[in-house]
Amino acid sequence: MKTALHLHLYYMDQLHEIISKLQNLDKAGIDYDLYVTMTAKDEEAETKIKQAFPKATIWQVENRGYDIGPFIDFLHKINLDSYAYILKVHTKNKKGGDYGCFNGVRIDSKTWANMLWDALLGSLDVVKNNYSILSENPQIGMVGSSFSLTDEEWTYKMLEKRINQEAQKILLPNINTISFIAGTMFMVRAQLMKPFLAYRITDFEKVQSKVHDYMLAHCLERLFGVAVLAQGYEIRGVTYKQYQFSRLWASVKRFAVQKKITKNGKKIIKICKIPVWQSKEILPTHKIEQEFQKNPSQKRRLAVYAAYDADGFVDKADIYYIRALQEIADNIIYIADNELIAGEAEKISKEVNYIKAEKHGEYDFGSYKRGFMYAKEHGLLDDIDELILCNDSCYAPIHPFKPIFDKMQNEQIDFWGITENIEIARHIQSYFMVFRPQVFKAKVFENFLASVKPQKKVRDVIENYEVQLSQLLYKEGFKSESGLNVSIESNNRLRKNSNLTLYPHSLIKQGSPIIKKKVFEEVPYSLEGKLLRARWAAIRINRKLKNILPSTSELIYKIADFYIKRFFYQKKQTKSGKTIIKICKIPVYAKEIAHDKS
After folding, report:
1. Running along the chain, 598 residues long, what does each successive block of 10 average in pLDDT?
2. Sheet holding 586-591: strands in order across?
């Protein structure tokens, strides 16, 4: 009945408290070996550990994979057949106002850490009870905090594709249900961890100062539970203290005063949910250029994905979009008009062939140019039927991509897009364009992309590149069509503006796989005024979008904020050119435009 206890010690100020809890094992008469990993040499901490536990084994590891990378390293240091159980614990940040939310309950990180620890080592009785559960119930394979034991769908869906890829790697069956202990502190039968010997600590991304989703550590956090279930065992949640007051107090404190760090590393203080201070501090970014080998799947298409994130992130909407492109394209090239924070490129390393991230100032067409040139130089255009140029200005897919590609396959055309626009001149809108070989192998096409230069503003890109590309190809005799045959003339609303992307709800009803982000971000950019309806319609079609699209509360806040500000202060220009300022809807200033009387 021997136990291997792994402690990953990162926050050294918690050592005294941890030693006290670990001694409950001695009081219960448990036979165990203590293994401690640290990311930096600390002689004082080592001395304290050795004084309390003379036989403890201590070593330093790279700061990879948070507590899970070191745990994998520990698994390789021991002989799993020599132990009945593994007890996995680690220090957890108890400062900084971090919060977690499980099973609909929000809690601060300090209370969460206490609940994880107390469920395993909170007292002599807790230790005895946990060992009794495992020894008397052979069907139970893992024990941990009932508060952190979760099977909420969103905790799996956010990582679904990579979790399944990793499950295949360790020979687990297809995942139908998921249940795991969030926070990765648990007691488990040692034999159930054998599948994870397929990993090494070097497989994990290096830890940055801010936790990012979609990393290997987050996948394995879930797979620890999945592996227990897949091998025919159950997970038992146990409770030592409910911490009801702490949970209530955490909610009150978070509403009254909230200190948080955004995904771009900026610090924000909110009072009653209202931001009152924001730092300018951001995480460092780096130029990235990486190649990855992929096995073509004979879809015979190549996609160039143009991205821009001022803070250097690959966000969840990008990841969702890029993974969906795999359904229609053999190869994907990711080009960003910005540098990336360390570790971000790894989020899509399994999906793309090539990543290049550096500031070039040429907007999406500059990224298209770089992606096209790379593909041409590496022979990726030689045997394909279609070249896709698309960018991150959209949420996609709403509807699947395949039906619209199947439909356009039979059209006798040379290039196409989701929508076309007749403003300025007829053109395929550049957020999603598809070209066939007679176009992308034509010299005129290559020369056009090669001529792309930095532009001062988006409008210049539209006029000089988006419109001009289609016009140039028309002059060369090439034909185009839009994937959505939405009639502008038959709809009074659509007749007011030929830019169909301003009507997200109508596009969703017409089967569009794509809607523009801008309609949700800049109220009232959408001319329909149906943002909430558009969101609900999209989620009804594809439940995965629930955590991709802005939340209902965010949209209500943006709409209310716009109209409240518009009521108190409004500056506008009339058709005649007159500038008017209104306060509480009352005109207080008007300036006439001087007209040339000659």
Report:
1. 95 94 95 97 95 96 94 97 97 69 66 90 94 96 92 71 85 78 96 96 78 75 94 91 60 67 67 70 76 71 95 90 94 95 86 94 96 95 95 95 93 95 92 98 97 92 95 97 66 56 87 89 58 85 87 72 66 71 77 51
2. 570-573, 579-583, 586-591
Task: State how far the Cα of 84 lies from the Cα of 77, in Å rounded to an integer.
Answer: 16
Mean pLDDT of the chain: 85
* Alpha helices, H only, 271-339: 316-325
> How is residue 274 written in tokens?
């209202």
- Nearest residue to 71 (alpha-carbon basis) of 240, 224, 191: 224
In angstroms, rounded to a whole number, what is the distance separating the alpha carbons of residues 18 and 24?
A: 10
DSSP SS3 for 409: helix
Rounded Cα distance between 568 and 574, Å, is 19
Residue 205 is classified by DSSP as P
Q: Is the dihedral of CA 459, 304, 419, 505 positive or negative?
A: negative
Query: Is 419 within 8 Å of 429 (Cβ atoms)?
Result: yes
Contact 33, 57 (CB under 8 A): yes
Please list, in sequence order, all residues whose beta carbon lies within 8 angstroms of the beta carbon of residue 146, skipping any fewer than 6 positions away.
Answer: 119, 237, 238, 239
Establish whether the linkage from the previous residue to 524 is cis, with ω within 30° of 0. yes
Helix (H, G, I), strand (E, B) or coil at 452: coil
Tokens matching residue 30 = 């448990």
Consecutive H or E run containing 57 = strand 57-60
Q: What is the pLDDT of residue 211?
A: 46
Q: Where are the alpha helices (DSSP H) in 33-108?
A: 43-52, 68-77
Q: For 381-391, give one letter per residue: b (16+ CB within 10 A) or e.
A: beebebbbbbb
Q: Among candidates 18, 15, 36, which has minimal Cα distance to 78?
A: 36
Cβ(347)–Cβ(215) below 8 Å: yes
Which residue from 471, 493, 491, 468 is spatially nearest to 480, judged by alpha carbons? 471
